[in-house]
Amino acid sequence: MEQQQDIQLKYQAPVYKFQRIFEQNQQKHKESMFDTKDLISIYNELQKKEIYLTSFISQGSFGCVFEAKYKEEIVAVKCSRVNLEKIKEEEDILILLKDTPYVFKSIENFLNETKSIYYQITKRYLF
């Protein structure tokens, strides 16, 4: 039986909270993929697509992941620098794992206007 997600947006976290989280995370990951300026750009680009960040999940040298509200769902948003070979590899893996219940399922993928950041919007099926 599938559990219901709480899709009510409790609040829309302001960009300064994400900046502070990023700055703290950058101290841990010396080779972070994004800096504070990038974060503001990510935040604004996602809002234009009506994707509202609700919390920060993780950041490493390959990108970062946020929780967000998108349409009527709570989703994960993965942001990474554009690397077409890696994007294709990830898409192939998701196709192979499409019937696995605990894998993040792709909802939408897109590049930003400058084609410098790749976004993957996914949801996870909970059982």
Automatic annotation (TrEMBL):
For this chain, one GO molecular function annotation is: ATP binding
User: What superkingdom does the record give?
Assistant: Eukaryota
Q: Which UniProt keywords apply?
A: Kinase, Transferase
Q: Does the keyword Isomerase apply?
A: no
Domain Protein kinase: where?
Answer: 51-127
Q: What is this protein's record name?
A: Kinase domain protein
